[in-house]
Amino acid sequence: MVKAIKVMLIPNNVQKTKMFQYAGASRFAYNWALAREKENYEKGGRFIPDAELRKEFTKLRHSDEYAWLLSISNNVTKQAIKDACTAYKNFFKGLQKFPRFKSRKRSMPKFYQDNVKIRFSNTHVKFEGFSSGRKANKQKMNWVRLAEHGRIPTDAKYMNPRISFDGLNWWISVCVELPDCRETLNDDGVGIDLGIKNLAVCSDAVQYKNINKSQKVKKLEKQKRRLQRSISRSYEKNKRGESYCKTNNVIKKKKLLLKRNHRLTNIRKNYLNQTISEIVNRKPRFICIEDLNVSGMMKNRHLSKAVQEQGFFRFRKQLEYKCSDKGIQLIVADRFYPSSKLCSCCGNIKKDLKLSDRIYRCECGNMIDRDFQASINLKAYGERFAS
């Protein structure tokens, strides 16, 4: 089993400078490779393999004009060229859009580390080429402190280590090969109905509230709106003709806004992870959810913001990952399965049920919360298809 782990880094100022240099070299190599492929295609040439481009880039590094690249680890630029060639090939295969050149202002600074030369301890990670000195105090620069101790195993096989900067902090993400851990499951299953009033309603009557209605999130949203208005007023105040001037105060306010956005994102992600972990740790035989048309729901201007904040897509992806980790069967009900309109007692379908009708009333006398009934129907759907 391959597991992806992401941990925050706590570098000192010298290490931060070196990381930005590595990220800049990676961006330069990526743009150079993409420009070479594009130029060659416009001239009618065939696709240039990444091996040939890397040989050409090695000669470029030893020229006087690009001598600054010699202070950067060779593996960083080689992987960036390989990534550019992969993105270029994927475009012609129809797997993605045409790759864009990376921007210094808009693109996320990130770079690659060799999976053989990177080393982990319980508290630090060693990067390649941060310092070439042989003295002990020089070699300390290669070791960057980890924010979480003992999170990444020290004796595992590492795959695709990547270091990225999100505007506030540096992060390292690495894939680790771990042994499979299958657990004994219960005979019962769980049906989950996702919604806006509550994040999730389970068939065993457990409800998970909408975190966006809590006082903590509302307070942060209010601070975020105030900061956005303040930044907008600052831009209008310092406008010179048709161009906007980014003053030091605007830069400070933008950093505060970035912190608020990160705080809100982390609260929502953490709540989703805790909810999914709590459901999976019950060890049900199967979990059944509905196939929501999230992109269609986002077109409704009255619901789009609430749907986006709930993170339905992330909920499903995390649930798929954790179910496969525990050996739980995940069943996705058909998109047109009437889980809310179907009576759980008599099986009658109420076609005129509106979104505002929160209580389901059937002719057979059944009166139940519509979300709870949907979860019961999803559980019944899962029992038919569970292996």
Automatic annotation (TrEMBL):
Residue stretches making up the Probable transposase IS891/IS1136/IS1341 domain: 173-301
Family designation: In the C-terminal section; belongs to the transposase 35 family.
Domain of life: Bacteria
GO terms, molecular function: DNA binding; metal ion binding
Pfam families per record: Cas12f1-like_TNB (PF07282), HTH_OrfB_IS605 (PF12323), OrfB_IS605 (PF01385)
Listed InterPro entries: Cas12f1-like_TNB, Transposase, Transposase_put_HTH
Cas12f1-like TNB domain mapped to chain residues: 312-378
Residues annotated as domain Transposase putative helix-turn-helix: 1-45
This protein's name: Transposase
Keyword Coiled coil (UniProt): yes
UniProt entry tagged with the keyword Zinc: yes
Origin species: Blautia faecicola
Keywords: Coiled coil, DNA recombination, DNA-binding, Metal-binding, Transposition, Zinc
GO BP, one annotated term: transposition
Coiled-coil features, chain-numbered ranges: 210-237
